[in-house]
Design goal:
Length: about 210
């Protein structure tokens, strides 16, 4: 984790589950924030800009140029021993592509096909992500319900263990029955923690898919 070894921290001993996830909200958030969908949208924008750049080849091209000349010469002979020339130069040029063998039309068609393809890619990505969200949400609901049931079972097993220990103290049951109650409680706790872990994994995977932080 690249954490400073001298940094003091505490690990939470309780797993907190997000019980407020809603399918409709998750799908809406995924459409806005999923990285794969966002990448497809960016590719679509790039394709649109490319079409504009291709169409710009039809328009006249204007060029501007300017310069400044300075020249100085010296001579020891003749009537003029020193000559200096200074001057600003500037100009405007224009060009227009009259015919390029139908290459312009072909390039524009290709650019339009790229836009159409990128639009289809966006829709395909949205459908794929929505399908994944729906599948993961059903897994999340199942795991949340299982975690709830196992927590109830853990409470019952704890209560049963307490009753068993009370009976053992007054001498009405054997150590074997105490051991059985203890093992049952440990097994129920294990199932409960496993169910909570599975529910948390489902929650994290959903939030990763929608582009949310957790």
């Amino acid at each position: 984790m690249t954490r400073d070894l001298s940094l003091d921290f505490q690990v939470e001993d309780e797993m907190k589950l997000d019980t407020d996830l809603k399918l409709g909200n998750l799908i809406e958030i995924a459409d806005r924030q999923n990285p794969q969908i966002q990448l497809a949208i960016i590719n679509n924008r790039v394709a649109e800009l490319n079409l504009k750049a291709v169409k710009a080849e039809r328009y006249p091209k204007i060029g501007l140029n300017s310069g400044y000349n300075w020249n100085e010469s010296h001579s020891s002979l003749g009537f003029s021993t020193e000559n200096k020339n200074r001057g600003l130069t500037y100009g405007v040029s224009a060009s227009l592509n009259i015919f390029n063998g139908f290459l312009q039309n072909r390039n524009e068609r290709i650019a339009k096909f790229q836009i159409k393809g990128s639009e289809l890619q966006i829709q395909q990505q949205k459908q794929d992500i929505q399908a994944q969200v729906r599948t993961l949400f059903q897994t999340y609901i199942t795991n949340m319900e299982l975690a709830h049931v196992e927590r109830k079972n853990e409470e019952l097993a704890k209560e049963n263990l307490n009753i068993t220990m009370d009976k053992f103290r007054i001498g009405t049951i054997t150590t074997l029955e105490v051991r059985t109650a203890q093992l049952n409680y440990i097994n129920v706790m294990t199932r409960s923690y496993t169910a909570q872990y599975d529910a948390k994994v489902s929650e994290i995977r959903l939030k990763e898919l929608t582009g949310e932080t957790y």
